[in-house]
Write a structure and sequence with these properties.
The termini are far apart. The chain has 67 residues and is an alpha+beta fold. The protein has three helices and two strands. It is 48% helix and 12% strand. Strands 1-2 form a two-stranded parallel sheet.
């Protein structure tokens, strides 16, 4: 992201009442435990690392949408 980090985007979404409950799937190349912990602390709904399997990302998005 050019001007904000993904964690900053999630924090902004969670701070706004209109988007606070929006499901957020973080897809990142940063897969260390500290990165996952930071994402969870920021309020992500789910976390995946690259490379990823297309079927897995579809399944997780469906799960987040309750489909």
């Amino acid at each position: 992201l050019p001007s904000l980090s993904g964690l900053e985007v999630v924090a902004a979404l969670r701070a706004d009442a209109a988007t606070a409950a929006l499901p957020v799937l973080m897809l990142t190349a940063k897969g260390q435990e500290r990165d996952r912990a930071a994402a969870e602390a920021a309020g992500v709904s789910d976390f995946m690392t690259k490379p990823f399997d297309n079927a897995e990302i579809r399944a997780r998005v469906r799960a987040l949408l309750g489909a």
